[in-house]
Amino acid sequence: MTPEEWEALCDGCGKCCLNKLEDEDTAEVALTRVACRLLDDQTCRCGQYEIRKQLVPDCIQLTPQTMAEVAYFMPETCAYRLLHEGKPLAWWHPLISGDPETVHQAGISMRGITVPEFEVPEEDWEDYIIEEPGT
Questions:
Q1: Is residue 90 part of a domain?
Q2: Shortest CA distance to 88 belongs to which of 44, 40, 96?
Q3: 46 with 52: CB under 8 angstroms?
Q4: Model pTM score
Q5: Total number of domains constituting the chain
Q6: Are 117 and 39 in contact (CB under 8 A)?
Q7: b/e per residue 85-115 (b: at least 16 CB within 10 A)
Q8: Is residue 39 classed as helix, strand or coil in its secondary structure?
Q9: Is residue 135 in some structural domain?
Q10: Is beta strand 115-116 parallel, antiparallel or unpaired with respect to 29-35?
Q11: Which H or E run contains 130?
Q12: Is the distance from CB of 53 to CB of 67 less than 8 angstroms?
């Protein structure tokens, strides 16, 4: 798979940019509505994608090689995770539907429902835990 093909797998849901809480005892991961400061809440894309690692050093760069380590941390509807697990893409995925808006129309994306991380103290993030849209 070329780098361009790999990048095209992103469905534009914005869920990977949500801050997550991991239970140290169970390794269970919970999504919050608290988003990375770089997430554009309307496009559900990183506002500084090319330089994100410089601005947010903890940002995980997904590659076929890193998926084995981080797949459990990715949203259940994530195309990268689905591919890693040998599962098909959903009908709303832009590569299937041919329309980048279907991820939003299907209620999968985080469009308009996030809170920027700089507005919520980290100790309050558990008050923002959500069920993953689309699961």
A1: yes
A2: 96
A3: yes
A4: 0.89
A5: 1
A6: no
A7: eeeebbebbbeebeeeebbbebebbbbeebb
A8: strand
A9: no
A10: parallel
A11: strand 129-130
A12: no
Alpha-carbon span 86 to 98, nearest angstrom? 21
Return the half-sphere exposure (C-beta side, CA atoms, 13 A cut-off) of residue 9. 20
Q: Which amino acid is at 7?
A: E
Range of the domain at 41: 3-130
Tell me the CA distances in angstroms from 18 to 90, 95, 97, 99, one per residue in order: 21, 23, 25, 23
Nearest to 21 by CA among 97, 133, 124, 95: 124
Which amino acid type is present at position 89? L
C-alpha span between 135 and 108 (Å, rounded): 8
Half-sphere exposure of residue 130: CA atoms within 13 angstroms, side-chain side: 20
pLDDT, tens digit, for every residue of 83-133? 999 999 999 999 999 999 999 999 999 999 999 999 999 999 999 999 988
